Amino acid sequence: MSTISTELVEPESGLPAGEPGPVGIAARSPLQLFWRRLRKDWLALTALGIVLLIILTAIFAPVIVDLAGTAAPRTQNADLTGDFGEPLGPNAQASSPSADGTVAQAGPFGSDKLGRDVFSRTVYGSRISLLVAFIATAITVLVGVTLGLLAGYYRGWIDTLLTRVMDLMLAFPVLVLAIGIGVACSGAEGCLGGAIQPGLTVVIFVISLSTWPYMARIVRGQVLSLREKEFVEASRSLGASDRRIIFKEILPNLVAPIIVYSTVLIPQNILFEAALAFLGIGIDPSDPSWGAMISDAASIFREAWWYMTFPGIALLVTVLAFNLVGDGLQDALNPRTAK
C-alpha cells in the first residue's frame, strides 16, 4: 500500500500580510518521499554519480579512446614492448625507434605483454562487465519474480515443486557449476541446439542460472506475507481473478524489494563475470575484460604492476559504487526511515 506523508502549508488566502490564514494539508507521493530520503544520503548520491559516469564511459568508449589518442583494445604493437618482450609502463617510450623512425610511447596506463594498450582495454572492459551484469540481472529478475509469485501465491504442490528446484540449484557449488557449463558450451556448436553460443551468451546463461533462486526466494517470502493482507482478502471477496490480484495488488507492493535486490545483484554479477573471465570461461581471450586482464597480469605483476592495478581499480570502484547505491535505495525505499 502506498505511504502518504503530510505537512502543514499556508495557501494563498488573500488576507493582509501578517494575518493568520487557513491552514492546508499537502500530501507527498511515494516518489516524493523516496527522493526526499535519497537526497539526504550524500554517499549514495556520490556513488550514483560514479555509476552514471561508468555507464557513460562504457557507452562512449570509442570516443574516449579516440580523444586519448590510444590504440584500439585489440591492436598489438610489438614496439610497445621492451627489448626482452616486457610491457612498457605508463607513458614510457620504447628503447628503439620503429621501422618508420618514430619512437612508440605507451598510453597513460601502459601496455601489456602483447603490446596492447591497457587504457583502451580498461575502458572497453567496462562494456563487457556492464553488459553481462545488466542482461543477467534482467533475466534473473524476470525468472525469479515470476516463479516466486507462483510459488508464494498458489502454494500447495506448485510451491513444493518450485521450492525443491530452488534448493537443488542452491546446493550446487556456483563456480563448479559455472566451470562445467562453460566448458560444455564452449564448443563451436554451443549448447541446447545452438541456443547458447560460446562467448558472452555462455557467461550470461551461467550467471542467470546460478542467481535466479535467490530472487525467487525473496519474492516468495514477500508474497506469502502479502497474500494474507486485508487488501488482498478484500479483492478476493469482490471476485477478482488470481491474475488481477497478483499483478494489480501484490506485484506493485514488491517493486521496492525487487529494485533494492536488483541493485545488489548487479555488482555481484560483475564480480561473477570477472571471476569467470579470470578462469578463462566464456570470454574470448582477445576481448577486453577486467577479469581476464587481471588473470593475464598475475604472472607478471612484479614486472608490470600497472597491468593488474588499473583494471583492478576499475573493478573495485564499480562494484563499490553499485553496492553503495543499493544501500542508499534500500534506506530511501524503507517507509520506516521517513522523517
In short:
This protein has 339 residues and is mainly α.
Can you offer a commentary on this structure?
35% of the residues are buried. Helix 2 (42-59) packs across helix 12 and helix 4 packs antiparallel against helix 5 (156-171). Mean pLDDT is 80; it is low at 1-13. A two-stranded antiparallel sheet has the order 1-2. Helices cover 60% and strands 3% of the residues. The protein has a domain at 118-337: MetI-like (MetI-like fold, Orthogonal Bundle). The protein is built from twelve helices and two strands.
Number of DSSP helical runs: 12
Structural class: mainly alpha
Give helix and strand order, one letter per element, not per position.
Answer: EEHHHHHHHHHHHH
What is the CATH architecture assignment of the domain at 118-337? Orthogonal Bundle
> What would CATH call the class of the domain at 118-337?
Mainly Alpha
CATH topology of the domain at 118-337: MetI-like fold
Tell me the fraction of residues in β-strands, as a range: under 5%
The whole-angstrom Rg is 26 Å
Shape by Cα distribution? elongated
Helix content: 55-70%
Largest beta sheet: what is the strand line-up?
A: 1-2
Low-confidence stretches: 1-13
